[in-house]
Amino acid sequence: MGKKKNKGIADNTVVNIDFPRSQFRQVKQMDHMTMKRFLENVYRQGYDKAAERTKDVREDIKPDKMLADISQIKGIGDKKLAEIAKIVNNHLGGAEVESNI
Hints:
The chain is mainly α. The chain has helices at about 20-30, 30-60, 65-70, 80-90; strands spanning about 10, 15.
């Protein structure tokens, strides 16, 4: 069996990485602290890009509408809905449980 090649795919999303040969040479010559700063910068850029991509998704999630839909499920009463609302609020923030949902 041959060696598996990393094609830059993570979670079925193609990752397009620009890593020119000149930068590769610079990385090879870095000392510990310079490499640490370089990797922190790469991480920060990836984090910022992911935050930018998910910004619209977070804004589309409406906890109060989600809880209203959950309350329509047979077997979900006020007590269960209150527990679910706590979890939703911890993760997303926002919605308060109303007894008339």
